[in-house]
Write a structure and sequence with these properties.
The strands form 6 sheets. Strands 1, 3, 5, 6, 7 and 9 form a 6-stranded antiparallel beta sheet that branches. Strands 10, 13, 15, 16, 17 and 20 form a 6-stranded antiparallel beta sheet that branches. This protein has a 3-stranded antiparallel beta sheet with strand order 2-8-4, with no helix packed on it. The relative contact order is 0.24. 0% of the residues lie in helices and 47% in strands. The two termini are 24 Å apart. The chain has one domain. The protein is mainly β.
């Protein structure tokens, strides 16, 4: 069995307009306990970006990766993730304090092979700037990486401080999302696009590339890999099944938050 992609959501929708300082996103319907929820927030930066943080948790316990900021490229992004406990108490939101520049939040959800699985980072967040391609036929490439665990999902993404359409993805094992990109057309615009790679064995993840539609722009990319693992007997697990405490094999209690 393999991890599976479940669904995505965003605010704004591709081609919409959304300003900060706070943006909420409605999660995909019919999620189940144990799903991996990843939110990526992107902020348009004119001088210095403000810290992006989860404001409304939706009843989940979120892990926060380091904010990536490129003032020269007018881009800042941050990755948040959690193990879904089975119940949303509200739509989760991201806030940047009082900044009212374009702010986008994209959510991707992945399903484990079993609801008893836990999630953790397999390969840490990587990121780098990329230059504008010279031609539409040139791909913007992300680095390859090697997983440490057998059952993993890798999320790669590209961000620009412009409205950009992305044409196609290349790279063995990589799949594109629908829509192909998430454009926020407020004021000066910003765009992000994503790819996923799911593995069932330890190994090298191939480089992934995306092609832009003219006019071409530079930006910044990011990549993170998660793995699923079965809880060991006696390992504390703090989450809920559909909001109701329960147990997992080995007798561990399941509480809320992880």
């Amino acid at each position: 069995m393999a991890i599976t992609y479940f669904g995505s959501a965003s605010t704004p929708a591709d081609g919409g307009s959304q300003a900060g300082p706070t943006v909420a996103v409605a999660p995909p319907a019919s999620m189940q306990v144990g799903d991996l929820v990843v939110m990526v927030s992107q902020q348009r930066v004119n001088a210095t970006g403000a810290p992006m943080n989860v404001l409304a948790t939706g009843g989940q316990t979120w892990n926060t990766l380091g904010q990536i900021e490129d003032d020269a490229a007018h881009i800042a992004f941050r990755v948040f993730w959690c193990l879904f406990d089975g119940t949303w108490t509200a739509n989760p939101s991201v806030s940047v304090g009082s900044v009212t520049l374009p702010l986008s939040v994209v959510m991707h959800v992945f399903r484990p092979t079993s609801t008893d699985m836990l999630w953790a980072i397999d390969v840490a967040q990587a990121q780098a700037a990329f230059d504008a391609p010279e031609l539409e036929t040139e791909s913007v490439l992300l680095d390859s990486r090697t997983t440490a665990h057998a059952s993993t999902v890798t999320l790669g993404f590209w961000t620009t401080a412009d409205a950009r359409a992305w044409l196609s993805m290349s790279g063995s094992g990589w799949s594109a999302f629908t829509p192909a990109q998430y454009e926020n057309k407020l004021a000066n615009y910003q765009t992000s696009t994503y790819g996923r790679n799911i593995r069932t064995t330890v190994g090298v993840i191939d480089q992934v590339g995306q092609r832009q539609q003219s006019p071409l722009a530079g930006g910044r990319w990011g990549m993170v890999t998660w793995y699923e693992e079965a809880p060991s007997a006696g390992q504390p697990i703090t989450r809920r099944r559909g909001g109701v405490p329960g147990t997992v094999p080995g007798g561990q209690r399941i509480g809320r938050g992880w």
